[in-house]
Amino acid sequence: MNKPLKILVIAVSAIVLIIGLGIAYLSFVFDPNQFKSQLIELVKEKKHRTLAIDGNIQLNFFPKLGVSLEKVRLSEFESPTQFANLDKAQVSLALMPLLQKQIVVDKVSLYGLQLRYQRDAQGKSNIDDLLAKDAADNTVKTDSTNSKQMRFDIEGVDIANSQFEVDDQKAALKGSIKDLYLSTGKIGDKNKTPVKFNAAFNFQQPKAEAKIDLNTQLSFDMTQKSLALQDFKTLIAGKLGNDTVEVLLETAALNLNTEHSNSEQIKLKAKLKGAQELGANIMLNKFALQDKQLSIAEVQMQAESKQGGASKQLELKSPIAMDMNTQLLKLSQLAIQLKINDPKLAQTAIAIPVTGHVSVNLKEKNIDSVLAAKFDETQLHASVQVQNFSAPAINFKVDVDKLNLDRYIKASTEPAKATESKEEDLNLAGLKALNLNGVVRIGTLQVKNLHINQVNLPIKAAQGEISMSGLQAQLYQGEVAGNIRFDVDGNRLQMQQKLSNIQINPLLVDFMNKDIVEGRGTLNLQINTHGKRVSQFKENLNGSISTQLLDGAVKGINLAKSLRDFKAKILNKTDQQQGANKNEKTDFSALSASINFVDGVGNSDDLDMKSPFLRVGGKGKVDLRANNLDYTAKVTVVNTATGQDGTDLSQLKDISIPVRISGPFDKLSYQLQFAQIGSEALKSAFKAKAAPVLEEKKKELKEKVNDQLKDKFKGLFER
């Protein structure tokens, strides 16, 4: 070895020895714990928080420069309440890069970290002061950045046994993240490292608990400012309310940087099991983000729900484009296929294809959509606009050419059963948040066997009040118009409807399967009701129903036929009981009546029915609570000419005969109450109607007796 080289080796060795001795001396002499009070005062002065270090502060000089802390606590801003707690922390720096003015973090370890985050409804949080920076700090940082280089090269990060408490009133989020664990390999520029993360979530608002397990290979490029994830896989499993949830997110590769980000495919799978079973698969194909323009060549979604033997399937496809500057998201070629399988429906399998386009403005918080569907015999076009995602205001227009709801709704063949004790209260509080304004127009509608045309149904909902003002439709050669209003508070329903120029018989036959009245005229309804349960709506019904009909008939009884044997009834005074007969009817030229309801019981006393030979009035009661009718009509013969069925009723002219109609609605009976006819009326009828007949019969009998006597005397004399 030549002399200069020996001198260099000796000099370097001497320098290393001196540095080593200096470090060794500092290790024995220097005690960092003596600076605890200064550090505590600094935090108090700068951040107005109380710092407590109950454990030791330890410095390591070789082989790595580092510091470790134990039992550290930090209070809230200007409060003794604890904000953070740390059992142990260790940070080390690589020593040799410091000689080149480079700071290289070698290892970061945290154990037993407990942190509490709070934010009120106005958005003020307990970390705002920690995030705030003054001008002096920014200046120092800028100067420092220019004079020093920091090389991002970490041997690894370990965080274990840590916990975060969250109470965010603005986001309606409250709970904790426990058993937090994070472990990485070496994190360095252009170096691929494994990352593993585990945590347990337990939230009271919304009520949910879950465990998350994340695994990936991470690498980044400081020059390109890019981050790459490979073999990314995250599994979340837990409970949402009383239901179990499982979510899997994965991708083979995801590249992120400030200029361009992309992934060939990102997959999301979700399952929810409980009273209802839900499943969804979402696939993003050719995801790309460049120059703040997001594009997805095609998003595919398959979702399915199952409950009680019924299932619903949804398939969705569309390209997606989004401008990150304007935050405008567009689904320009939306295609949806909805399939319903339900054994409770009349048509157990229904397929509904939907096409259209949707625009979502995330900055303005609104949605604009146009949709169309063609299924079975129906074509539908709709436009929907939504304003404000947190409290949506929805405007819509729906046009349907033809809709047959009876095709899908199975008619019940079982008689209604009394289940009052099992009936549950209506809970419609969720409708208070509904904010709707729109109209539904239907060319031809069939529902409950009713055939309705040109339906125009305006719908508004706000602050718990749902109204349909200006409802219009054509049905049974007439028109219907009116208003409906429902108030969620108290479940109060108000209805005003007028049916004009309606053919009443086909309406009642189609809707109620009751062939009881014929005629054409008007029907007015002014009713209101309320109730905690559906059954109480009948019990609390108040209001009035009135009708005026022309040129019709009452089905079930032929009064003319029932009065045919008037002579025997006058003499016997016996009542005639008979059930309703659909083949019998009593014609009328005009009929009017009204019913006034008080708490489910209706009274009527203004029946006025006119026919060429009869006048009918009456009064009675309709009891919706008991599903029962008790009505007495008084029939008066006013025409002695031959009337209905060719029967001469002149002997009963001006006599009122009571006809009682009674029984349950589905089994009415008719009783002609001849015994209730007044005795004076009978005497008058007998004298005025029956006496001439008897006189005629007496005369005939006298003539016959005289003839017989003549024959007898003649025979006697001829002997």
Write the layout of secondary structure elements.
Elements: H1 3-29, H2 36-47, E1 51-53, E2 57-60, E3 65-75, E4 82-93, E5 102-103, E6 105-119, H3 128-131, H4 135-147, E7 149-150, E8 153-154, E9 156-168, E10 173-184, E11 187-188, E12 193-205, E13 207-221, E14 226-240, E15 243-257, E16 260-273, E17 277-290, E18 293-307, E19 310-323, E20 328-341, E21 349-361, E22 366-375, E23 378-387, E24 393-404, E25 436-447, E26 450-462, E27 465-475, E28 478-487, E29 492-503, H5 504-512, E30 517-530, H6 536-539, E31 542-556, H7 559-562, H8 566-572, E32 576-579, E33 581-598, E34 601-610, E35 614-623, E36 628-637, E37 656-664, E38 669-672, H9 679-718
Parallel strand pairs: 5-7, 6-9, 24-25
Antiparallel strand pairs: 1-3, 2-3, 3-4, 4-6, 8-11, 9-10, 10-12, 12-13, 13-14, 14-15, 15-16, 16-17, 17-18, 18-19, 19-20, 20-21, 21-22, 22-23, 23-24, 25-26, 26-27, 27-28, 28-29, 29-30, 30-31, 31-33, 32-38, 33-34, 34-35, 35-36, 36-37, 37-38
